[in-house]
Amino acid sequence: MSKAAKVVAALKVDELTERQARAEHKRLADEIGRHDRLYHEKDAPEISDADYDKLRQRLKAIEARFPQLVDASSPTQRVAPTPTTAFTKVRHVKPMLSLDNAFTDEELQGFLDRVRRGLERTASSSRAPRAATARRARTSRPTSRR
Protein backbone atom coordinates (compact mmCIF):
# COMPACT_ATOMS: atom_id res chain seq x y z
CA MET A 1 0.00 0.00 0.00
CA SER A 2 1.38 3.41 -0.90
CA LYS A 3 2.13 6.03 1.75
CA ALA A 4 -0.85 8.14 0.57
CA ALA A 5 -3.17 5.11 0.69
CA LYS A 6 -2.03 4.40 4.28
CA VAL A 7 -2.85 7.98 5.26
CA VAL A 8 -6.33 7.72 3.71
CA ALA A 9 -6.92 4.29 5.28
CA ALA A 10 -6.14 5.80 8.69
CA LEU A 11 -8.78 8.52 8.29
CA LYS A 12 -12.28 8.07 9.66
CA VAL A 13 -14.91 7.78 6.94
CA ASP A 14 -16.52 11.08 7.94
CA GLU A 15 -13.14 12.80 7.45
CA LEU A 16 -12.71 11.64 3.84
CA THR A 17 -13.09 13.98 0.89
CA GLU A 18 -14.93 12.55 -2.10
CA ARG A 19 -11.62 12.11 -3.93
CA GLN A 20 -10.11 10.24 -0.98
CA ALA A 21 -13.28 8.18 -0.60
CA ARG A 22 -13.15 7.19 -4.27
CA ALA A 23 -9.53 6.00 -3.90
CA GLU A 24 -10.26 4.19 -0.64
CA HIS A 25 -13.38 2.59 -2.14
CA LYS A 26 -11.32 1.20 -5.03
CA ARG A 27 -8.58 -0.02 -2.70
CA LEU A 28 -11.08 -1.75 -0.41
CA ALA A 29 -13.03 -3.29 -3.30
CA ASP A 30 -9.79 -4.68 -4.75
CA GLU A 31 -8.57 -5.96 -1.39
CA ILE A 32 -11.91 -7.57 -0.51
CA GLY A 33 -12.07 -9.19 -3.97
CA ARG A 34 -8.58 -10.61 -3.45
CA HIS A 35 -9.50 -12.01 -0.03
CA ASP A 36 -12.75 -13.45 -1.43
CA ARG A 37 -10.78 -15.35 -4.06
CA LEU A 38 -8.21 -16.57 -1.53
CA TYR A 39 -10.92 -17.77 0.84
CA HIS A 40 -13.54 -19.19 -1.53
CA GLU A 41 -11.50 -20.44 -4.45
CA LYS A 42 -8.10 -21.30 -3.02
CA ASP A 43 -9.02 -22.19 0.59
CA ALA A 44 -6.04 -20.06 1.64
CA PRO A 45 -7.23 -17.08 3.69
CA GLU A 46 -4.58 -14.57 4.71
CA ILE A 47 -6.56 -12.51 7.19
CA SER A 48 -8.93 -13.29 10.05
CA ASP A 49 -12.70 -13.12 9.66
CA ALA A 50 -12.68 -10.10 11.99
CA ASP A 51 -10.19 -8.23 9.79
CA TYR A 52 -12.20 -9.13 6.68
CA ASP A 53 -15.37 -7.87 8.35
CA LYS A 54 -13.63 -4.57 9.18
CA LEU A 55 -12.77 -4.09 5.50
CA ARG A 56 -16.38 -4.72 4.49
CA GLN A 57 -17.75 -2.46 7.24
CA ARG A 58 -15.49 0.39 6.10
CA LEU A 59 -16.54 -0.11 2.50
CA LYS A 60 -20.22 -0.04 3.51
CA ALA A 61 -19.66 3.13 5.53
CA ILE A 62 -17.97 4.82 2.57
CA GLU A 63 -20.85 3.82 0.29
CA ALA A 64 -23.37 5.10 2.82
CA ARG A 65 -21.63 8.47 2.97
CA PHE A 66 -20.87 8.60 -0.77
CA PRO A 67 -23.74 6.69 -2.47
CA GLN A 68 -22.49 7.79 -5.90
CA LEU A 69 -19.59 5.33 -5.42
CA VAL A 70 -21.90 2.30 -5.27
CA ASP A 71 -21.87 0.26 -8.46
CA ALA A 72 -22.66 -3.29 -9.53
CA SER A 73 -19.03 -4.38 -9.19
CA SER A 74 -18.78 -3.37 -5.53
CA PRO A 75 -18.37 -6.29 -3.11
CA THR A 76 -21.38 -4.92 -1.22
CA GLN A 77 -23.54 -5.50 -4.31
CA ARG A 78 -22.53 -9.04 -5.22
CA VAL A 79 -22.20 -12.47 -3.72
CA ALA A 80 -18.76 -13.95 -3.09
CA PRO A 81 -17.18 -16.16 -5.78
CA THR A 82 -18.25 -19.76 -6.21
CA PRO A 83 -16.35 -21.95 -3.74
CA THR A 84 -13.77 -24.36 -5.06
CA THR A 85 -15.08 -27.82 -5.97
CA ALA A 86 -12.46 -29.27 -3.61
CA PHE A 87 -14.85 -28.53 -0.74
CA THR A 88 -17.28 -31.30 0.08
CA LYS A 89 -20.84 -30.51 1.03
CA VAL A 90 -21.70 -31.08 4.65
CA ARG A 91 -25.23 -31.50 5.89
CA HIS A 92 -25.48 -30.44 9.51
CA VAL A 93 -27.81 -32.34 11.81
CA LYS A 94 -28.68 -29.09 13.55
CA PRO A 95 -28.83 -25.76 11.71
CA MET A 96 -25.70 -23.65 11.80
CA LEU A 97 -26.32 -20.25 13.35
CA SER A 98 -24.39 -17.14 12.47
CA LEU A 99 -23.55 -14.01 14.40
CA ASP A 100 -23.99 -12.16 11.10
CA ASN A 101 -21.26 -9.68 11.92
CA ALA A 102 -22.42 -8.74 15.41
CA PHE A 103 -20.22 -5.87 16.57
CA THR A 104 -22.34 -4.22 19.26
CA ASP A 105 -23.92 -5.44 22.46
CA GLU A 106 -27.36 -5.01 20.88
CA GLU A 107 -26.42 -7.10 17.82
CA LEU A 108 -24.96 -9.81 20.06
CA GLN A 109 -28.11 -9.78 22.21
CA GLY A 110 -30.21 -10.18 19.05
CA PHE A 111 -28.15 -13.23 18.09
CA LEU A 112 -28.53 -14.73 21.57
CA ASP A 113 -32.30 -14.16 21.43
CA ARG A 114 -32.48 -15.97 18.05
CA VAL A 115 -30.46 -18.88 19.45
CA ARG A 116 -32.76 -19.15 22.49
CA ARG A 117 -35.88 -19.12 20.29
CA GLY A 118 -34.34 -21.81 18.08
CA LEU A 119 -33.46 -23.93 21.10
CA GLU A 120 -36.96 -23.53 22.52
CA ARG A 121 -38.50 -24.64 19.21
CA THR A 122 -36.14 -27.61 19.03
CA ALA A 123 -36.86 -28.61 22.62
CA SER A 124 -40.63 -28.34 22.22
CA SER A 125 -40.66 -30.23 18.92
CA SER A 126 -38.44 -33.01 20.31
CA ARG A 127 -40.69 -33.42 23.39
CA ALA A 128 -43.91 -33.60 21.41
CA PRO A 129 -43.15 -36.80 19.47
CA ARG A 130 -42.10 -38.65 22.65
CA ALA A 131 -45.29 -37.66 24.42
CA ALA A 132 -47.38 -38.74 21.44
CA THR A 133 -45.53 -42.06 21.28
CA ALA A 134 -46.12 -42.63 24.99
CA ARG A 135 -49.85 -41.91 24.56
CA ARG A 136 -50.09 -44.33 21.63
CA ALA A 137 -48.29 -46.99 23.64
CA ARG A 138 -50.72 -46.58 26.55
CA THR A 139 -53.82 -46.61 24.38
CA SER A 140 -52.80 -49.45 22.08
CA ARG A 141 -52.13 -52.04 24.74
CA PRO A 142 -54.35 -55.06 24.40
CA THR A 143 -56.81 -55.45 27.22
CA SER A 144 -57.61 -58.84 28.67
CA ARG A 145 -61.23 -59.96 28.73
CA ARG A 146 -61.26 -62.46 31.48
CATH class of the largest domain: Mainly Alpha
Continuous helix count: 4
The proportion of residues forming helix, as a percent range, comes to: 55-70%
Mean pLDDT equals 81
Percent of sequence in beta strands: under 5%
Radius of gyration: 25 Å
Summarize the structure.
With 146 residues, the protein is an all-alpha fold. The protein has helices at residues 3-10, 18-41, 49-65, 105-139. The protein is globular and about 60 Å long.
Notes on the structure:
With 146 residues, the protein is mainly alpha-helical. It folds into two domains: 1-85, Orthogonal Bundle (Helix Hairpins); 90-146. It has four helices and no strands. It has helices at residues 3-10, 18-41, 49-65, 105-139. Helix 2 (18-41) runs antiparallel to helix 3. The longest helix is centred in the C-terminal third of the chain and has 35 residues, at 105-139. Residues 131-146 have low confidence and may be disordered.
Topology:
Elements: H1 3-10, H2 18-41, H3 49-65, H4 105-139
Helix pairs in contact: 2-3
Jot down its keywords.
single chain; 146 residues; mainly alpha; Helix Hairpins; 2 domains
